[in-house]
């Protein structure tokens, strides 16, 4: 019975979590050591703060709208760091000049206001719409107090 109740609470809390985003690059991005501005929005849902999008395409930053467990991911060429505030939480690289794909992802327990972004360390991130070669996405798995 205890197991059933905890499973039910988990299902209810997952159903209540409505924070998700996916943004892609409409064209290649060549700035160095700066936030990649994923400008082509596929999903941008924030039921925690309905007036604020979860992801801001003008800054390239996702700001956690509530305490919770989140899954975030970046995929695309070439050499990238997945950033939590000013810290690297995951990296992806193929260390060459070809358009090979790399990806990095993380599961994080975030406090409201923490910032997730993708920093281009070196090279060019290949982008194009509607093909969406490169994407930055994430969602809240479950809220925490
Ligand atoms: C979020 O977490 C922080 C730090 O653990 C806590 O101080 C704050 O009260 C929490 N906020 C909510 C809305 O639960």
Automatic annotation (TrEMBL):
PANTHER family recorded: CEREBELLIN-RELATED, COMPLEMENT C1Q-LIKE PROTEIN 4
| SUPFAM superfamilies, per the entry | TNF-like
Task: Please give the chief subcellular localization of this protein.
Answer: secreted
Q: Could you identify this protein by its name? A: Oidioi.mRNA.OKI2018_I69.chr1.g3751.t1.cds
Span of domain C1q: 14-145
- Identify the domain of life: Eukaryota
Could you tell me which InterPro entries the record lists for this protein?
C1q_dom, Cerebellin_Synaptic_Org, Tumour_necrosis_fac-like_dom
Kindly list the places in or outside the cell where this protein is found, as annotated in its UniProt entry: Secreted
Q: Which SMART domains match?
A: C1Q
Question: Has keyword Signal?
Answer: yes
Q: Which UniProt keywords apply?
A: Secreted, Signal
A Pfam family annotated for this UniProt entry = C1q
Extent of the signal sequence = 1-17
């Amino acid at each position: 019975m205890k197991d059933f109740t905890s499973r039910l609470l988990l299902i209810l809390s997952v159903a209540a979590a409505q924070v998700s985003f996916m943004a892609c690059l409409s064209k290649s991005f060549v700035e160095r050591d700066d936030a990649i501005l994923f400008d082509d929005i596929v999903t941008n849902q924030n039921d925690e703060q309905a007036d604020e999008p979860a992801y801001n395409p003008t800054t390239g930053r996702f700001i956690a709208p509530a305490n919770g467990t989140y899954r975030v991911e970046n995929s695309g060429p070439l050499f990238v760091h997945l950033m939590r505030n000013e810290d690297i939480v995951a990296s992806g690289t193929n260390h060459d000049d070809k358009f090979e794909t790399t990806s990095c992802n993380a599961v994080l327990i975030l406090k409201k206001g923490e910032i997730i972004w993708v920093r281009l360390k070196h090279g060019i991130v290949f982008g194009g719409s509607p093909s969406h070669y490169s994407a930055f996405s994430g969602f809240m798995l479950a809220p925490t107090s």
